[in-house]
Amino acid sequence: MPESPLEIQIKTLPHQPGVYQYFDVDERLIYVGKAKDIKKRVSSYFNKHHDYGKTRVLVKNIASVKHIVVETENDALLLENNLIKKYKPKYNVLLKDDKSYPWICIKKERFPRVFPTRRVIKDGSEYFGPYTSMKTVKTLLGLIKGLYQLRTCNYDLSESKIEAGKYKVCLEYHLGNCKGACEGYETEEEYQANIIAIREILKGNFKDSLQQFKIQMRQHAEAMQFEDAQKIKEKLEVLENYQAKSTIVNPKISNVDVFSIVSDETYAYVNFLQLSYGSIIRSHTLELKKKLQESDTDLLELAIIEIRQRFNSTSKEIYVPFKVNLGNDLKITVPKLGDKKSILDLSIRNAKYFRMDKFKQVKLVDPDRHANRIMAQMKADLRLSEEPRHIECFDNSNIQGTNPVAACVVFKNGKPSKKDYRHFNIKTVEGPDDFASMEEVVYRRYKRLLEEAQPLPQLIIIDGGKGQLSSALKSLDVLGLRGKIAIIGIAKRLEELFYPEDPIPLYLDKKSETLKIIQQLRNEAHRFGIEHHRNRRSKGALTTELENISGVGEQTIVDLMKQFKTVKRIANAKLDELEAVVGVSRANKVYNYYHKE
After folding, report:
1. Localized where (predicted)?
2. Signed CA dihedral, 551, 555, 557, 562: sign only
3. How far is residue 263 CA from its own chain's centroid?
4. C-alpha 361: how far from its chain's center?
5. Where are the beta strands (DSSP E) in 129-278?
6. Interatomic CA distance for residues 308 and 282, integer angstroms
C-alpha cells in the first residue's frame, strides 16, 4: 500500500529544534507546537494511543505538517508563542487576556510631559508599564505631581517660541503646580533633573529622590528658609509613605521576575510578580484555557515568554516553582527556603486567589460551568468511566449499640439534594454490627430504586474502610449491579479511598476539590445519621416513662410534650397547668403518677 502524503512529510522531518504546524484538509492551521527534536515529537502523535479524547480528534484531523527550524529551544518558544497569538489555532492553549493596559509616557519633547496612555506610539518617547490597573497609574502620577512641578500643557516649548514670548503662564503656574517653563521661568536643565528622578521612581528606585530631597531640605534649613524646608519635608513624607506601602521583600532581591502556576482540568492560572530594588512593582495573573491536557511545565514556559514580552521585562533572573527550559540567557532559580521561597509562595497565593475569584464569578454568571469543571475533575481524580453527577453516601450510627440506624445522603452536580436524603432503621441485624447493617441498607436502597425504575447514581461512597465496602459489594452482587455503579470506601483516619479488589488505597491531595466534596458527603451523612439516631433515642427515652402511666395515650403525650417540651417539666408541673392542656381526668393521672407520696 503506497504511503500517504502525510506519512511522507513525517518521514522527512528534521531532527532539529523548532516549531511544527498541523493543518486540516481545508488548510486551516489547527495546532502549533515546539520541540527539541521536530521529527521525534511529531512522530509521537501518530505512534501511540492517546487517552485524552481531544488529542485523538486532533490527530484524526491532521492532513499536513509544516515546520520551521530554529537555532535554540528558546527561539522555538518565542516563535510558538507568536504564532499562537497571531493565528489562535483551535487546539492550542487559549490566552484569556487580550485587553490593552495603561502605560505612563514620558514624551520625547523639550520639557517632557508625563501622562497616562493606552496607546504606545513609536516616536522615541519613553513608556513605563504596562500597569495592570489604572488605579496604580493614578497613584503613581499623583505621587509624581506632589513631588515635582511639571507642565500639563501641550505647547511646543521650543527655544525660539519661548524667547518670542508666544505663551503666557496659566493657572497651574499660579497654583504652584508648574514653574512656568513656557515663559522661561525654569531652565531645561532643572526640568530634566526632575525627569531623571521621575524615571527612577517609575523603575521602583526611590533611593535617589529621597537622598536629593534630604540634601535640599538641609540646604534650606541652613539658609534659614524654613518654609521651603518644610515643603521639602512634606514631599519626603509623601515619598516615604508611598514606599512603605510597597511590598518590600528584601533589598538584596533586585530586578527579578517571579512566576507560579495553579491549574485544574480545564484552566491554568500563571501569576507574575516583578521585583525592583527590593519591592514588588507589578503583579499580574494570566488565565490560560487548556485544550489538550498540556502539562504545567509547558504552560508555564509559554506563559513566561508571553508575560515577559507583554510587560517588556529585561530581568536576567526568574524564580519558578520547578525547573523550566527557557534557554541559556536566563538564570532559573527554584527557591527552597528563605526570602526567595517566601516571595514564590506569595506568587502562588496570588494565583490561587485569582482562581477562587474566577470561580465565584462563574458561579454567579454561569453555574453550569462550575459544576461541569468539578465533575470533570472528580471523574479524572477518582478514575471513573463517567462523571459522578449523582453521588450517594452511606453511614451507620449506633451509639453504645442502641437504636442502630443508617443514613443515605445524595449529591447532584456536586451539591446536596436534601429532598433525596433517606433514613434507615436497621431491621434484620441484632446488636451493633456495622458490616451487616451496611449490607442491609445498601440492598434496601437499590432494590427500591430498581423496583420503582428510579435513576441509579454514578458513584456510591461508603463511610468506612475495606470491611464496610465489602459488605456493600455483596448487596450490589445480589442485585446484579456490580460493575454498573462505581463504588469506593473512605476510611476516616487518613482519608484513604478504597476501591473494590484493590488492596492499595488512593490518597488525594488534601486541598483537592474532589476530596473536599467527598468529605462534605461523608460529614453530611454522619450529621444526618446522628440526628436520626438522637431523635429515636430521645423519643424512646421520653415516651417510655409517660407510656407507663395508665390511661395516658399517644395523643396526650404529644400534647404534653408540645406544651412543656421535656419530661422533667411535665413531672414538676402543677395540677391546674396540666388540666389546662389535657383536661381534669388525664391531668390527675399524670400528676398522681409523679406525686405518689
Report:
1. Cytoplasm
2. negative
3. 8
4. 11
5. 256-263, 267-276
6. 12
Residues 515, 513: Cα–Cα separation, whole Å? 5
Helix (H) or strand (E) holding 582: helix 575-582
- Can you tell me the distance from the alpha carbon of 494 to that of 283, in angstroms, rounded to the nearest whole number? 37
Nearest to 298 by CA among 33, 64, 88, 547: 33
Q: Is 233 exposed, middle or buried (0-12, 13-18, 19+ CB in 10 A)?
A: middle
Q: What are the grid coordinates assigned to 240, written together? A: 516615604
Place of cell 522615541: 124
Domains for the chain: give ranges and CATH numbers: 5-87 (3.40.1440.10), 105-245 (no CATH), 256-363 (no CATH), 383-533 (3.30.420.340), 548-595 (1.10.150.20)
Q: What are phi and psi of 2, to 5 degrees?
A: -65, 150
CA distance 426 to 430: 9
Which DSSP letter does residue 420 get?
G
Contact present, 77 and 326 (Cβ < 8 Å): yes
Cis peptide before 130 (omega within 30 of 0): yes
Per-residue pLDDT of the chain (597 residues; tens, 9 = 90+): 566 777 878 888 888 888 888 888 888 888 888 888 888 888 888 877 776 667 788 888 888 888 888 777 777 777 787 778 777 888 887 776 656 678 888 888 888 888 888 877 777 888 876 776 677 777 778 777 777 888 888 888 888 888 888 888 888 888 888 888 888 888 888 888 888 888 887 776 767 777 777 887 888 888 888 887 887 787 777 766 665 445 445 556 778 899 999 988 778 899 988 887 666 677 788 888 888 778 888 889 888 888 888 887 888 889 999 998 887 788 888 988 887 888 888 888 888 888 887 777 766 667 777 788 888 888 888 888 889 999 999 888 755 445 677 888 999 888 888 888 888 877 777 666 778 888 888 898 999 988 888 889 999 988 877 888 888 888 888 888 888 888 888 887 667 888 887 878 888 877 778 888 888 888 888 888 777 656 655 555 445 567 778 777 777 877 887 788 777 788 888 888 888 888 888 888 888 888 775
Backbone phi, then psi, for 158, in 5-degree steps?
-75, 160
Cα–Cα distance for residue pair 196/488, rounded to 1 Å: 67
Q: Is there a contact between 156 and 79 (Cβ–Cβ < 8 Å)?
A: no
What one-letter code names the amino acid at 450?
L
Looking from the CA of 401 toward its CB, the CA atoms found within 13 Å total: 4
